[in-house]
Input
Amino acid sequence: MSGLIATNKIAVIVGTGVSACSVARFFEQQGTAYLFMDTREQPPGIEELKVEFPNAVIETGGLDQECLESAAQVIVSPGLSLKTPEIKAAMDAGVPVCGDVSLFLEVNTAPVVAITGSNAKSTVTTLVGEMARQAGISVAVAGNIGDPVLDLLSGSNTEQYDLVVLELSSFQLETIDAVNATVATVLNLSEDHMDRYDNYFQYHMAKQRIYFGAENVVINRADVLTKPPMAAGVTEYSFGLNKPDRHGFGLIDTSQGDMLAFEFKALMSASDIKMPGRHNVENALSALALGHVVGIPMEAMLETLKVFPGLPHRCQWLSEIDAVNYYNDSKGTNVGATLAALEGLRKDDGKIVLIAGGVGKGADFSPLKEALSGIRAMVLMGEDAEKIAVIAPESIEVQFADSMHSAVVKATAI
Output
């Protein structure tokens, strides 16, 4: 196989998952020769892949470094680190290494709203898409949410869309030289994926790549790490829960309560936002800023905020049973997301029973300590349960469970 690549310069798709399959479909449209390569002996879904691509060469059980070093280009799935020795060797040999989003951006002609952050990416991405649809704008929503970006393509362009809204993870951003978005944002930053990055700075720098080539940026006034080094000709907008100023979206205090505002103009009551929690007010403001930059009419955006309920598993209200409200925040997979949820529901301080645990991905749990002092109890489960228990204040009850069912039963009893 090494000789075949050396003589014919075939593109190598590293991975066999959803994004990898979208790359293969794109290459077939383009008439580009390719093969699949995967580190796993029997990747999930491999049989379905063989059915869809019956003529494709599929190499599993490791990465052939010689093949990669002589490839025309290497397309890496987001789940595989660029530090993987065989991938790094290909990069050192001068082989172009990118991801599916880079291929999409090369042929995309529609304005792009690019969104990243440690938390709330999917909520804000979906919300901006819904705002555009409410306004009658033909919009595509993709990236780290829903469909792979290359599945948006029909032929070699995206002329059927007036707007593309992309959620981008730090893993995806590692393989993009320049997003060149009409507007880009880092919504917030907190420790995440520390099992993949050597330190927080590396993770921060990966997120900042979303600003490369952007015409406009939207920053979080409460998080200095969301601010990029400014370039000439780039306009900066902002959002936050405080009073806004020029180019800012925020809250102003009125006799009718908190009002969402742009610069010095009140827009609507914060209490009219359908999504629950204070953190979702912040999400609404960020979506308004992004939508405003790309010309979504304000009336349509405000109407969307009044009806959009939020996404499943993200502080999702489930039911009220015996005067107890149950919320599903199982997408809160890092410390920052958990802090946001507890802050968003702070009106219930002293009543909250938190089910938490799972795999912390190398995160430092200590920032949770202060917020936990305001809850009633915790039920912990999973691999890192004991690590969370260590930082629990003495004032709260802590129990352990070996399953989600058991955890809910114990939380209900409390």
About this structure: Confidence is low (pLDDT under 50) at residues 1-7.
